[in-house]
Amino acid sequence: MEKTSIHGMWSSRMAFILAATGSAVGLGNIWRFPYMASDNGGGAFVLVYLACIALVGLPILMSEVLLGRHGRRSPVNALTDLVRDLGASKGWISIGWIGMVAGVLILSFYSVVAGWTLHYSWLYFSQLFGAPAITDPGATFSGLLGNPLELSAWHAVFMVLTVAVVALGVEKGLERAVRFLMPALFILLLTLVIYGATTGHLSEAAAFLFKPDWSQISGRTFIDAMGQAFFTLSLGMCTMMTYGAYLPKGVSIPQVGVTVALADTGVALLAGLAIFPIVISFGIDPQGGGPGLIFTSLPHAFNAMPFGIAYGLLFFALLSVAAWTSSISLMEPATAYLVERVGMTRRKAALLVAGICWIVGLATVFSFNIWSSVRVPEGMGVISNKNVMDMIEFVSNNLMLPLGGLLIALFAGWVVKKSLLKDELDTLSPGVLALWRWVVRVVAPLLVLAVLISPFVLD
Ligand code: PFF
Ligand code: NA
Predict the structure, then answer these.
(1) To test ligand 1's pocket by mutation, which of 23, 33, 100, 396 has the most ligand atoms within 8 angstroms of CB?
(2) Atom of ligand 1 at shortest range from CA of 238
(3) CA 312 from centre of chain
(4) Domain coordinates in residue numbering, the chain
(5) Domain 13-457 adopts which CATH fold?
(6) Whole-model pTM?
(7) From CA 168, how far away is CA 239, in angstroms rounded?
(8) Which residue, by CA, sits nearest to atom 12 of ligand 1?
(9) How much is the ipTM here?
(10) Ligand 1 centre from 235 Cα, in Å?
């Protein structure tokens, strides 16, 4: 009989694709990717980012899913079983622990930013009923950031929404939600690209995004691109491993992996093509946009376009939903672990994890107001001048996720038996399997390692 997970199973291949795409597609694509590109000078960053997705992201994505499906338990326990069966070192179990800690750190700031999108949804919703328009987007955004009470309230609302779904178990609400909402988001972005074309700046935007200006490339480009690749594909913290645990046998892991990676990359590029024409046409500098980029640029377009209020509402509401399907997956590893290990109910476990994330998230909330002067001193290389939120992002996205990914690749490539890999990746031809294994053993680890140590050697 086939081994199944005590937490439930995805009802079909499609259900997994939707859930994994729901996890991947989120703020990382629409909020973070454009401003990372903006801060790193555009095209050169995008190219390095795409290389990271193909050479590191996709192979590790497949590794995570196959390890999860083989283990059928939450990461720490799945790895414990596997290490025991293989007679390997218990040290590998640390991958699961790194993942849970990274998940809490990421969710802590993710939820704060998702709170911004909720707030903007509310701003457009109330405009439908006569509230004043956002005439000065920069001022509106800094007004929000300057208000810790408002920030922590929206952060709380978003956490409650996340707990509500995780507590119910993932299959019910989620499968249904992503089935309609993800395509809707896609269409909305496409419309925004078409709008961007009417501004007459689409080709300039495309040039900024796709024509590499090699003079802009630095150590930081590689660090940011690698971090973004891990973050956007939800890799390195065992999220995809956890989702893989609920994946029925018989579904082709390479096929679903490619689908998820393509969908995620497509949405990111589309978001870039939607946002930069607007940025350029409203006279905003496309370089150095920072985390406020979409919040300070898009409202200009929504003010100018027909039905802009309804459109703005739809845009931010769908972005909130995209963030929601990602935050659910951020909570799942720790929640599943608590259920298995301590025998907590799903509901209690989810509440506990969310409570911790909310409290840790206050550090992000304060980094824009009462702690805004807390900065890493100059002369500290790539982390110079970062604020508290930047540092939390740096530690999770640029250190913990790549470290987790590196260990996952090494484990899948060197420790796991070839027969197990062959069994889980049975749709690959022997040649492709060998290629994949070589990438996971050698190429991906070397690339990640190079990027991982660079912050310590670069200035
Ligand atoms: N991939 C998500 C995004 O791009 O918004 C963020 C994320 C979700 C990161 C889940 C990590 C994770 F485990
Ligand atoms: Na993403």
Answers:
(1) 23
(2) 13
(3) 23
(4) 13-457
(5) Amino acid/polyamine transporter I (1.20.1740)
(6) 0.96
(7) 18
(8) 234
(9) 0.99
(10) 8
